[in-house]
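Researcher: Let's try something more involved. This one mixes different molecule types, so please make sure each is placed in the same coordinate frame as the others.
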Amino acid sequence: MPSYDANNIFAKILRGELPCHKVYEDERAFAFLDIMPRAPGHTLVLPKAPARNLLDADPGDLAHVMQAAQTIARAAIKAFNADGITVQQFNESAGGQVVFHLHVHVIPRKAGVPLKPPASVKEEPSVLSDQALKLAAALKA
Ligand code: AMP
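Model: All components are placed in one shared frame. Result:
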């Protein structure tokens, strides 16, 4: 398996070199909105520590990221009045991974509404800003 590339786009976001619509941060995890959401509120949850994906991640970081994903999923149900949550996580190109810093997709779902195709439509920054505020507020409630 290739080694971790510290120049991947999510590593740059974690270092503050690129912007994001942040929704959550703790000592080991960081979360922001997907810029091409498959549904409103589509969030990516990452370990702060370098990890390419599930295959090389520290098990403690992996467990922590899933706990953070649960926290975000619960808040997203409230913030987006969702009926359910889809969690996705891809590993290596053959597994559907495009960005090679481990991340978990937390996607709020409405009954009967299909997901948009992956990376199909770039959302307006103003819409993402509003959604990030809503989700961050639900996380504090
Ligand atoms: P995957 O590696 O297959 O889990 O997909 C990477 C995800 O990252 C896709 O859903 C993209 O829409 C998303 N994405 C790519 N670049 C950015 C970015 N700069 N900020 C937020 N999300 C991104």
